[in-house]
Write a structure and sequence with these properties.
This protein is mainly α. It is built from 16 helices and two strands. Strands 1-2 form a two-stranded antiparallel ribbon. β1 and β2 form a beta hairpin. α10 runs parallel beside α14. The longest helix has 33 residues. The chain is globular. The two termini are 34 Å apart.
Length: 492
């Protein structure tokens, strides 16, 4: 499902701008359409996460992916319209509903990962991201081919149908999720409480800055390459797209490594150390892409490839580290180890990624026009330096604090811990303190242990970079999509 979802994210790249231009629309018109997607995800995701336990994980997944499938089919029908104004208005409305469905799908998927794989959260997240990355690469090829065969309607009809039938598959294959009644057994997690915890806020800020970095490149990299002419010939659209695939390739290859490191027990703050590495690599990658004024080389195809490679590794560390860190931090702060917490944190993660994907290309385009790429990169470098300072400060303060009596982060749960002792005493929980008091109730056994069959790990998504749309004849376009939808920041 995640693979197909990623294909739908990226498949529009080769043909949607061309179709919009043919109906008399300008770049900024449908740029607003794609921007509306990210803003909607930013607003809706935390709300869905807060009510995930009441709605149910399976129902959230079903409704989310089914809605996205139906919207895509309707989107294909827009190709039959002649009026550019009507085309734009309906695109705007459908994109907002698509964002709502995608938010539900992603939040439910994230929560299912945390619930079903408590000892390997980061590793499973990395595996799913890998499939998403493959779908991102395959999507434009499939979308372009279907467009050539059947025009604007066929790609949306085919991929929308696949997603809709996937929702039916999920309905019959995944077991129902039992609702966990936290009742009076402890304080329920809340958005306000989560946003008051520095460890969670730092993890979310790092995720947002990483999303902004990839969005920044989508808007500004292609025009930055205009004066690079290997053998005296400007780069083609295919070659520019191949450069973006460098980020996707290194991102995907690095995910298993970052997942293992985040799940390791080397330190109780393993994800934050991974995020530190991510911040350093992203900042270094942008300095090479510039290149920074005092570096001993000039802009060349080799330096661009090197910068994109470094950035891809940093992006992987930031995304996986941020996801794992947000969940582990919540548990360490005493949040109950229930689907309520998983849904809340997953919704926040999805929300800040979408916000970063909106901010990056927006400010990137403005700064590129004002001060050129070489100086505009300091926007992203500054964000990464702020993240680095926050992470370093947190780690220094945390090192001075004694380790809690029971460090019950997600990655340290054992299967034995989930079974009450024969004496009837409940095991210490994530909220346990040194005096043995229990802050919150112990988590119930994983649902996959109560009935045969485990959750099929399904999807998250954040978009990786895609190539410029030269074929549309409107300059460099790019998109930063999140899992089931995308934001295409556009420069004329």
């Amino acid at each position: 499902v995640n693979f197909c979802n990623a294909m739908c994210v990226s498949m529009q790249a080769p043909f949607y701008p061309r179709e919009a231009v043919s109906k008399g629309l300008k770049v900024w018109h449908f740029g607003l359409v794609f921007g509306a997607f990210e803003i909607t995800v930013f607003i809706v995701s935390p709300i869905i996460g807060s009510y995930l336990n009441k709605i149910g994980v399976k129902r959230t997944l079903n409704l989310g992916i089914g809605l996205v499938g139906i919207i895509l089919i309707l989107y294909g029908c827009l190709g039959l319209l002649k009026s550019g104004t009507v085309f734009l208005a309906l695109s705007f409305v459908l994109r907002i509903f698509e964002a709502c469905g995608n938010s539900a799908f992603l939040t439910g998927s994230f929560s299912a990962i945390a619930r079903e794989f408590p000892t390997n959260v980061a590793s499973m997240f990395a595996l799913i991201e890998l499939f998403f990355g493959i779908g991102e690469i395959v999507g434009p090829v499939v979308g372009g081919a279907l467009y050539e065969v059947g025009g604007f309607t066929l790609p949306f009809a085919v991929m929308g149908s696949i997603l809709f039938f996937s929702s039916i598959f999920i309905f019959f294959v995944l077991p129902d999720t039992p609702q966990v009644d936290t009742g009076d057994s402890g304080e329920k997690p809340s958005l306000k409480k989560a946003l008051s915890k520095p460890g969670i806020l730092i993890a979310l800020f790092k995720v947002g800055s990483a999303a902004a970095s990839i969005g920044f490149l989508q808007t500004t990299l292609e025009p930055h390459l205009h004066d690079i002419k290997p053998n005296g010939v400007p780069l083609t659209s295919f070659q520019v797209g191949a450069l973006f695939m460098v980020v996707g390739g290194t991102y995907g290859l690095s995910l298993p490594l970052w997942g293992v490191l985040c799940d390791s027990k080397l330190t109780r703050n393993s994800p934050k150390y991974v995020e530190v590495v991510g911040a350093i690599l992203i900042a270094l990658g942008f300095m090479v892409l510039g290149p920074f004024k005092y570096l001993p080389f000039k802009k060349s195809l080799a330096s661009i490839i090197a910068g994109m490679t470094i950035h891809g590794f940093g992006l992987g560390a930031s995304v996986v580290g941020g996801f794992s860190d947000a969940h582990k931090s919540a548990i360490r702060y005493g949040f109950p180890d229930t689907i309520d917490t998983y849904g809340l944190v997953s919704g926040l993660w999805t929300s800040v990624f979408a916000f970063g994907a909106f901010v990056g290309p927006t400010f990137g385009g403005i700064l590129y026009s004002a001060v050129t790429f070489r100086w505009a990169i300091f926007f992203i470098i500054s964000l990464e330096l702020v993240a680095l300072v926050l992470l370093a400060g947190y780690l220094l303060v945390d090192c001075g604090n004694p380790a809690p009596a029971v460090d019950r982060s997600i990655s340290t749960i054992s299967e034995v811990d989930e079974v009450p002792a024969m004496s009837g005493q409940r095991p210490e929980t994530y909220g346990a303190t040194n005096n043995g008091s229990i802050g919150v109730t112990g988590r119930s056994r994983k649902f996959s242990e109560n009935i045969p069959g485990s959750y099929v790990a399904s999807s998250v998504a954040r978009s990786m970079a895609r190539s410029g749309f030269k074929s549309a004849g409107i300059g460099a376009l790019g998109s930063v999509g999140r899992r089931g939808g995308d934001s295409d920041p556009l420069l004329p």
